[in-house]
Amino acid sequence: MTTDAPFLAISDANRRHLLEELRRGPKTVSELAAGLPVSRPAVSQHLKVLLDAGLVSARAEGTRRVYAVSISGFRKLNIWLDQFWDA
């Protein structure tokens, strides 16, 4: 994960909304799309950006993919941010 990827990923309001929804628990694309004024394919594209940034994970459940917040991805981001509080 590059340092820029998570920041670029969370710069979009729709992706921040997805992260807030996933913070409440794992969800499918359909469940996530229900709360946004964008299509399921658009939600999938946003999730790919979050996946590539290491901020979410996905697991197969039958024919569906279930997305969740990646604790390790946020831990790496938090470690990077924490260095500024110790300066």
TrEMBL record:
Q: Which residues form the HTH arsR-type domain?
A: 1-87
Q: Which PROSITE patterns does the UniProt entry name for this protein?
A: HTH_ARSR_2
Name any one GO molecular function.
DNA binding
- Matching InterPro entries: ArsR-like_HTH, HTH_ArsR_DNA-bd_dom, HTH_MetalResp_TranReg, WH-like_DNA-bd_sf, WH_DNA-bd_sf
Q: Name one Pfam family in it.
A: HTH_5
Q: Organism's domain of life?
A: Bacteria
The yes or no answer to whether the keyword Cell membrane is present is no
Q: Which UniProt keywords apply?
A: DNA-binding, Transcription, Transcription regulation
Which protein, by its recorded name, is this?
Winged helix-turn-helix transcriptional regulator
Q: Which organism is it from?
A: Aminobacter anthyllidis
